[in-house]
Specification:
CATH architecture of the largest domain in chain B: 3-Layer(aba) Sandwich
CATH class of the largest domain in chain B: Alpha Beta
Distance between the termini of chain C: 68 Å
Oligomer: heterotrimer
Strand order of the largest sheet of chain C: 1-10-7-4-2-3
Number of helices of chain C: 22
Helix content of chain B: 40-55%
Shape of chain B: globular
Order of helices and strands of chain B: HHHEHHEHEHHEHHEHEH
Strand content of chain C: 5-15%
Strand order of the largest sheet of chain B: 4-3-5-6
Largest sheet of chain B: 4 strands, parallel
Radius of gyration of chain B: 18 Å
Helix content of chain C: 40-55%
Number of helices of chain B: 12
Number of strands of chain C: 10
Number of strands of chain B: 6
Radius of gyration of chain C: 26 Å
Number of domains of chain B: 2
CATH architecture of the domain at 5-158 and 198-297 in chain C: 3-Layer(aba) Sandwich
CATH topology of the domain at 5-158 and 198-297 in chain C: Rossmann fold
CATH superfamily of the domain at 5-158 and 198-297 in chain C: NagB/RpiA/CoA transferase-like
Largest interface: A-C, 80 and 103 residues
Amino acid sequence: MPDDYRERLFGFLRSRAVGQPGELLVEDPAPRPSTAPGAGDDLAERFCSELSAVGGEAVNLGAVEDPAAELGNWLKGLGLASAAMDSDPAWELLALPVRELLSSAGLAVDSVDSSVNPQELAGYDLGVTLADAAIAETGTIAQCARPFRPRAISLVPRCHLVLVPSDRLLGGMEDFFEGIDEGACWATGDADFDSYFTWITGPSRTADIEKTLTIGVHGPERIGVFLLGEGASDG
Amino acid sequence: MVKVLRHYDVELEFPGNQTCCGQPAFNAGFRREARELALAFLDVFEDCEAVVSPSGSCVAMVKEYYPKLFSDDEELSGRFQSLADRTWEFSQYLTEVLGVTEFPGRRDGSLTWHDCCHSLRGLGVRDGPRRLLASVEGAELRELEKSDECCGFGGLFSVKFDKISSRMLSNKLACIEKSGAESLVATDCSCLMHMAGGLEKSGSEVRALHLAEVLADALEESGAGSQEEASS
Amino acid sequence: MRPRSDQFHELSSRALEDDSLREALKRASSSFHAAKTDAVDSMPDWEELRQRGHDRKNRAIENLPEALETFEKNFRSRGGEVHYCEDGASARDRILSIIRSSGGSSVTKSKSMVTEEIALNDHLEAAGLSVLEGDLGEYIIQLAGEHPSHIIAPAIHKSREEVAQLFHDHLGSDPDADIPELTRVARKTLREAFLEADIGISGANFVIAETGTIVLVENEGNIRMSTTVPRVHIAVVGIEKVLPRRSDLATLLRLLCRSATGQRVTSYISFISAPRTGVEGDGPEKLHVVFLDAGRSRLWADPTQREALNCIRCGACLNFCPVYESVGGHSYGWVYPGPIGSVITPHYIGIEKASQLPQASSLCGRCGEVCPMKIPLPDMLLGLRAKAVEAGSAGFVEKLSMRSFSLLARSPRLWRLLLAFGRPFYRLVVRAGLAAVLGGAARRWSRSRSLPLPGRSGFRRWWRENAEKGGE
């Protein structure tokens, strides 16, 4: 589409140039704030306390004796009927038998990928995914667009279960962005990691009416994030 | 203020040619007039060793805005900056120049402190006066809820937008009443005048006093009566 | 949205008499205050963070043409389309034309102040499209036929009762529903629209030059719904929204979330750089950014006011402004209320149409203190007042008074004379209760305050008689 205004706008802006040429993208590293966890910190503990503080449910399976039982009990406690699990090939590499645990908890499990109709996803109570990355500073999990994972799987069903392989748990926001730039293993794949990704921190919420907090508006009202221990996956 | 400063053996002068710092003109956008009055101020005070004022907003004008008003003239803005560095709000002069931490004398009664906007945000005046007041024997300092919220004066704002100004004032009066203090104390005569007007109109018994009045009272060690309210 | 900023006096007077609004604003204010204070207290490096945010945003704004161009190049290289529109009218037309060529007719929209600026909804509806606001607060005011009164919480001026009545009238729900129930009703109604929409329209919190990314920050999930389900996603973005690099987001997100809602981070943050890629089965097929100028380039060209473009729309200045708390957002008559609104509205709609806004401030300075981007809002209000005077908009009486005042204040002898005579005269008038004689200002003062009564003699005489000689 023709854009006549573009030329006029740039002409105007350039005629009054203020900055120095080339300075826009110059690297300008900043010290991290003291609240961003560093390499020596217990990231799993930090992650769990941050997420719990905002109404999410976080469990460090690496510190639990029987991870399968722990996850199994949580699933049974949900009392839900159906689950949509994404078709991540990495599920096969996990030691934890997630699919079996879902079935044992009474959930009918279907595998879905990004070709599924979002309307169909509305028929499932629980969406199940692996996190691409997790950020301990804020209790955040990152999900990017992958062919095997619908974008709406972490949005439409009422509840969301996420598992985080230990090598994907990062300290702070800076680590996340650096990871993408440096092509960290969790930031690569069959699609460009960064064409679309979303950060999810806790359940959906609003305080638009009288500043009173309500959980579960358009997104899930419950999110359970389970951190996997070392060696829990061969991926 | 004179009484208190004299107590600390400060040699005082009152240049009779002083008039106004020009803040009302500046705030209304009349920069030409503001510059004219700034130059007149410079003329009156430039040769003084230090300048002290009982009005936080005037001092903020001198320190924050005078140098900026002449930013296009290096020489003048330098002279203004030098004057600004020697100009003090009364409580800051006591605490930062004279280093007063404990104030002598006695004044019975409960007090509550309001943070005037220009003193607080323009000059950083917060803990100094509270410490001074708390140190006066017999004085009971009560914290004012939302003490840093504007009283609604704002110079010409108080009449140009009088209804909004009155709402802000009534919010402030409610907090003053809630504190249960007998007197309200602050660093700015104009804000005090506005709050005193509201207190009186609403039939409140709370008195609005300048910090200097309270401290001078303490020096008299009688706790009764205040200095004749002076305005120039 | 048609501006009514020239009616600030009437609108604010009415607002001051609205008790329900007063309650709502008081509730909002204490909630926002507490949230922000806690959030800032939990960040010991807050001041450093502010400075960093200020510097990084300045870097983008000072290099605006390069920033926009870099964004465009990167965004387009991955399949997105970029448009530049001079004003609201051309932006509306361009957006409609994008929608028409996609063949879609149902639109879900997320909260976007810039789309309010250009009155997009009315234009699309007039063209026969169905437009539904997905953000709960925006949905409420859409049903009510109103405009947002706050940047972050658009329906903050409404009580639960009003919302329940509104939902009852439009959706047939229980007129006494409580807040969780009302939220459930909205979720159910909007979900159907979300899952069937052809077009999603959003704003953008930030756009990143280095990577060609749109960043969207929310808590509800409606933005994710509108930007991942429909075939077409259109982001309407002011040209000032650029940041230089993706890593700058660490700083800016920490500042925005804490300042807006007191959260360390919101529930959902979307980072969108491309439409559906070849291997994906979902996501929009078409992705558009419509850049809007509408007065921003002119503001950019003014070095004394340019910093207003650093605003990240957190609403902190509104939340801490005692004037906003007294009169609410609608009094400002346009899209942006509070201190930031008082600065940018005159620039965007013309200073003659919004002359009262920069005046309606006591200059208490709280806005500049809480702004996460260190925008010197009080200085900018002063700057706008000076501009108004330079442009000749000050009234004749005011101009004359200021000139006379300056002359008087530069003649010490005349000044002292005036004091000497004025004092007894003024005292007489006040004590006799004849304040009205002193004119309108005295009348307006006296409605809620007693006039000050100076002493019989002033400081100068006291000094001469008692203190000049260093006396007792």
